[in-house]
Amino acid sequence: METVLYSLTSVLLRSGNSVFDRLSYGLRRQSILVLNFANNFVPFLLLAALLPLLPLENKTGWTMYANPKLALFAASVQGVAFAFSYGFRHLTVARVNIVSRVGDVLIPLVLMLAGRTVHWTEYLFALAVSGCSLLAAGGMTESKKTLWLPAFFITAAVIVQSLCGELFFQGKSSDVATNLEVSTALMFWRSAVCLVLLLVFGSKGLMTSQMGELVEDRRARLNLMVRGLFTMGNQVAFVMALATGNRVVAWPILNSVTLFSLVFANAFIQEAPARREVFAVVAIVSLAVLKATL
């Protein structure tokens, strides 16, 4: 039950962020590196400021930041963010959802090969969630060439993320204090990865102009703060969903974020979902509720 609830919470918050991503990367053509750094660094600052104020026990302090497994997991999570950013640059929210489904079928198999015990009902759940998402693929007009590269990047990224997550979370405590510290350190390492890539590969002129826009433009500042709050809540729920231990169930729900984003995309950027896509959202929520009650 906890796994499903945390996963759904993370998905709903990330769905709002997906609309920001599509608007920023696909429609406004803003820099993926600049925005990924800003979108990670602001939530890190918020979490770092909030954590000392909470009356939590079992805090580990700065030792979490030195954990190499956490740093590796953070890099894999950021890899997924970059892969989806690439998808949102070239495809609508609905199409990104479609190309991201392959990974959900492969993740349980990869985890089994890595030594994780996967019950047949958990794999059946992953297949059902992916099947619901593929219902949205009817009437697709894009060529295979347009879809295969985002599909490859996203599939490879989510598989690596699941393996790194398994490596880090196996045997970890699931108490609130630990998970909040993990979330904060995760945002720190994601920010660090983005900053290094930005300094190495980013255009200095573009970096200066877009960073300046984020600071000076009122709408850009508001979008950044709202997205930062969404990301902070999503990251905490994401970590708690994985820390509960039932990660084979968590990953298909967590990776369904773009499907839930269809509702937000319709409301805010007029990318209207088809009826089959709305049906798929309802079906996945129903499956998640059923899985939580069994």
Can you walk me through this structure?
Helix 8 (176-201) crosses helix 10. 48% of the residues are buried. The protein is mainly α and 294 residues long. Helices cover 79% and strands 0% of the residues. The protein is built from 13 helices and no strands. The N and C termini lie close together (9 Å). It has one domain. InterPro entries: EamA_dom. The chain crosses the membrane at residues 32-54, 123-140, 147-170, 182-203, 224-243, 249-269. Residues 184-285 form the EamA domain. Keywords: Membrane, Transmembrane, Transmembrane helix. This is EamA domain-containing protein.
Mean pLDDT: 75
Main beta-sheet strand count, sense and barrel state: none
Query: What percent of residues are in strands?
Result: under 5%
Quaternary structure: single chain
**What is the straight-line distance between the termini?**
9 Å
Number of helices: 13
The radius of gyration over CA amounts to: 18 Å
Give the low-confidence spans: none
Helix content: over 70%
Kindly state the number of beta strands: 0
Order of helices and strands: HHHHHHHHHHHHH
Query: Please, how many domains?
Result: 1
What is the molecular shape? globular
Q: Brief overview, please?
A:
The chain is mainly alpha-helical.
Task: Walk me through the topology.
Elements: H1 2-27, H2 32-50, H3 68-90, H4 93-99, H5 102-113, H6 120-134, H7 144-169, H8 176-201, H9 204-216, H10 218-243, H11 247-254, H12 257-268, H13 275-293
Transmembrane segments: 32-54, 123-140, 147-170, 182-203, 224-243, 249-269
Keywords: Membrane, Transmembrane, Transmembrane helix
Pfam families: EamA (PF00892)
